[in-house]
Amino acid sequence: MDRTTQLTARRTARTGPAPAADVYEPAEPAEPAEPTGPAGSLRARAAGVLESNWTGTSTVPSRGLYPHQWSWDSAFIAIGLRRLSPSRAQTELETLLAAQWGDGRIPHIVFNPSVPLDAYFPSPDFWRSSAAGRAAGAPRTVQTSGIVQPPVHALAAWLVHRADPGLSRARGFLARVYPKLAAWHRYLLHRRDLGGGGLASVVHPWEQGMDNSPCWDAPLSRVAPAPARSFRRADLAHGAAGDRPTDLDYQRYVRLAAEYRDRSYGDEASGGFAVEDPAFNALLIASEHALARIARELGATGTARRTRAERLTAVLVDRLWDPAEGMFLCRDVYGAGRSGRLLPERSVSGLVPLLLPDLPRSVTRALVRTACGPRFGLGGPARLVPSYDLTGASFDRHRYWRGPAWFNTAWLLERGLRRHGERARADALRADFLRTAAASGFAEYVDPYTGAARGAAGFGWTAALTLDLLHHDGSDHSTHHSSDRGGNRG
């Protein structure tokens, strides 16, 4: 146990036990037992990855391919860091939130000025955040991108607080981050409701996090590619071309990002790409539940946020649920003559809403059937859960988000299964996660059939979420189906 963990454990002992668990996090002992044997070795290896990726104020996803701070990576990394050092987990989130824009958005990249411009593309000189984003309140002293990533942050903040409530209260952690997180959610719920139905839209595939998913193929086909010679990809220096997006896809990504930048990052007039994604909105809802818990911790009732989360869950089902497919689908806001339409592609994003506590029972049963059926193979031929339908025409077991299995989505589905009483399936997924993470060297993603490592090695959120799942065997997760109205998990 490191010195920080020892100190925070003693603070927790002085301040008494943690408050009653919420719908997102079970009650835990103040100082959990250290894993021993193979589990202890895996814990040490995972901790070593996070230590090597630590910059002093934040954690990079990987030293080579991703040398800056990424938004949803840092949220997942903080969730794992709380198992090693709650104070460092708080710092991870605080560093990210320090780069928040005046309009509330949390940028998807916070650039490290000591990293050479040619180490990553698009680099700060492409985004020009402090100039192009001035009207939207971009910070002047730090360079960022202008797009966003999935809103896992409030959920992460609540879990980090729960790891050591005494330390969190002593530092005023929640009191400082709550206004920033509330502003972030206001931005998404108001500025990004481009479809007018109450859900947030993403305006670039990179915002959803599953960058190269086949779900984006149809909306992206409307985007004119940027000239091939107008930029140089840096990602191909760190991975096989067959694992990465194609040049044509990248040309469209660059065109879309440049047009958004040239509109001063304004959301009022979209560039023709706007998609309501189930995972993005499910994480927003989960974080609304977490904000309700944070509000209660700070002395408010949290009732309005809890009610909003329940309302958004109903909207998610109404707009994105497809009972015939047994899963949620993306909505192309500007498709079908700008009247909007559901996209037929089936990705892991459509299973992530299983995380939510207030889904109708018929929906949760159908999601479990779909996850365990031939399309996603959970408990069958697939390791973890593939990022895309195994039977789909666009399935590619190696190419980025078009088939490979990712550890963050496995972590989300493990929690969703456990939440809804699928303990045996959750236990099996947890075991597969830990075996695959260990065997792959904490890979960025893996072949969904063999578990062979793909992408970057020593990946931050893979190591972090390994630590989280090693911490307990899952037996302390509640299976309450209610939200935190008298309920007990969040």
From TrEMBL:
A Pfam family matched in the record: MGH1-like_GH
Sample GO molecular function, one term: Glc3Man9GlcNAc2 oligosaccharide glucosidase activity
Key words of the record: Glycosidase, Hydrolase
Low complexity biased stretches: 1-27
Annotated stretches, region: Disordered: 1-41
Keyword Hydrolase (UniProt): yes
Gene Ontology BP annotations: oligosaccharide metabolic process; protein N-linked glycosylation
Residues covered by the Mannosylglycerate hydrolase MGH1-like glycoside hydrolase domain: 66-462
Family in the record: Belongs to the glycosyl hydrolase 63 family.
Name of the protein in its database record: Mannosylglycerate hydrolase MGH1-like glycoside hydrolase domain-containing protein
